[in-house]
Amino acid sequence: MIALDIDNTLAATNPALWRMFPDADRARCHGAPVPPAWFGTESGRRLLAELRPLRGARRAACLLARRARLVYVTSRPPATVAETWAWLRRFRFPCGLLVFAGSSAAKARWAELLRIELAIDDDPAAAAAYRAVGVRCLLPRWRYNADDPEAAPWPRLCQAIDGRTPVSRRSL
Predict the structure, then answer these.
(1) Is residue 155 situated within a structural domain?
(2) % of the chain surpassing 90 pLDDT
């Protein structure tokens, strides 16, 4: 199985938050100072429903779905289940399981339970948690994770998934 995070991995969440909160710190993983519970509010759920996919994310998900079963592992609150499924369907992401894991540690526990072989997540803490349980983690590049050797823009990650070029010294 392959784990895919949603926010800032498949969906352009930070840019949407930066538009709402122009003074937000763009060097932080979570782009705006909103409490996690905010995403479960009406305005938070509306923002999640209106997100656009990151360039190359859907193509990568489709490539990965040819190789293994997908599981979408998200830190979103469970109150956003309807918006999350609707978003995945709207942008025609491949079918997969949907897991609401509230923390990086929970993502790693799910990885062990589901025998995840590869994870793709933007959060450096989640990447460290996945790696601590032996799961390779690739990261779509953002300012806050650019120093990770497995971070690259989605088009380059797609090329690596396709087998045309490595992301880093290690191959997929």
Answers:
(1) yes
(2) 58
